[in-house]
Amino acid sequence: MPGWLAHMQESPEDSGPFVDGFLPQRMAVLNEIVARAEARGEAVRTALDMDALMEACVGPFLMRSLIPQSPPIRRGEIERTVDLACLLIEQARQAAGDAPVVTQPASPPDSGGRIRPHG
């Protein structure tokens, strides 16, 4: 990933497959997830900054793939990423005038489990 990003900086004309393929595919998946949440009454897309949500979801994992010798991703880091995404969704709900949704944590506290990024 670091090599590919460096290449895109040096040769922006070669970034088409990433910009035209990778990013829209990820945004389509995120849109589908948010649409399902909206159908359940848990999100409001019209008030939601989808770019900020994408950055919140992808950023921590992308950083791990860019920094050599990064330690494995721990469950707590994943849970913080999910919490941040939920906060952005909740802020959008409040901005749209919807009542807040009270949720329970998705999983027990960090048990020290490790998850390795792909790649």
UniProtKB/TrEMBL annotation:
It comes from the Bacteria. Residues 2-84 form the Tetracyclin repressor-like C-terminal domain. Residues 94-119 are annotated as: Disordered. Keywords: Transcription, Transcription regulation. The keyword Transcription regulation applies. It holds the Pfam family TetR_C_11. InterPro entries: Tet_transcr_reg_TetR-rel_C_sf, TetR_C. Signal peptide: none annotated. The keyword Magnesium does not apply. This is Tetracyclin repressor-like C-terminal domain-containing protein.
